[in-house]
Amino acid sequence: GVLAKKDISFLVDRLAAQTNLSVGVFGMVGLEAQIFCWHNGHPPLKASTCKGIYGGMQERLSESAVGWLLLSTVERRRREGLLRRLNAESPPERQFALRELADTIEHAGEAGCTSGRMGFGSIADVCAVLIPDDAHGRPMALGIVYEPDGRNDPQALIELLHDAVAACVAVPERGEGQILHYPNAA
What's the predicted TM-score (pTM) here? Predict the structure, then answer.
């Protein structure tokens, strides 16, 4: 099944109202993760930009957990090349252990979800799941974003995200090792 744009917008608004947390839809644009749709929680997240976090922001795919989830949809050999390029183009303080990140990305793909640092100029964390979207052949992820204060249970947020997506579209049962591949990604 596929989620229409209006369904995704509805999901974002519903999850934000239900949790009082920030919710976003993320996608891949080249080697960047981009926020396609954003709904601030209450209070809005702190960020390093004066505008806070907003739709249209971009972050290197290697810099955020949602970027790792999006990278998991790219065929493995191509993904390894993308990771080498991302590392080579990163300043020394932002370079990463290639094998370790590749394993993290592989695990995210097997699980169909991830949690970890948000990036995008924020200290926030994100829990995200892949959104079925056959219409464009590009991976997208739905994420709930929160301050890392220990008040939120990442596993409960992942379950909430899976349930919310499943309620909007008939998706096959999540099985171990289910990986969605997008041939046109990145």
Answer: 0.86
